[in-house]
Amino acid sequence: MRLLVIAPHLAPDTAPTGVVVSALVTEMAAAGHQVHVVTSLPWYKKHAVDPDWKGRGWRQHGEFAGATVTRCYPFPSAKSNLLGRAMGFIGFTRLATWPRSLPENGSMRCWQFRLP
Description:
Shape: globular
Number of strands: 4
Order of helices and strands: EHEEEH
CATH architecture: 3-Layer(aba) Sandwich
CATH superfamily: Glycogen Phosphorylase B
Number of domains: 1
Low-confidence stretches: 105-116
Mean pLDDT: 77
CATH topology: Rossmann fold
Strand order of the largest sheet: 1-2-4-3
Radius of gyration: 14 Å
Strand content: 15-25%
Largest sheet: 4 strands, mixed
């Protein structure tokens, strides 16, 4: 089965959501499914993009546990800034659903991913 996972966190991000999503993606890929994940650059621990991931652009592609991964900029903000966090999630959602982040033509029937 071909699966698309859109989640704000994935390993190495330490957010509880990232831990759960990482485990699910690992299991789905191990079960033989073709999995593509659209997620953010790691940012949860300090509410800023992890220094090891800075300077890599708005969107990058890689792999995790047998799944292909597209990482988008997360628009991080301080934990206490509720409006900033809401705007950050809106920004991430827009980037995550941008056609270049998804399988070609936005269709799960086609697995020719566009790379930058």
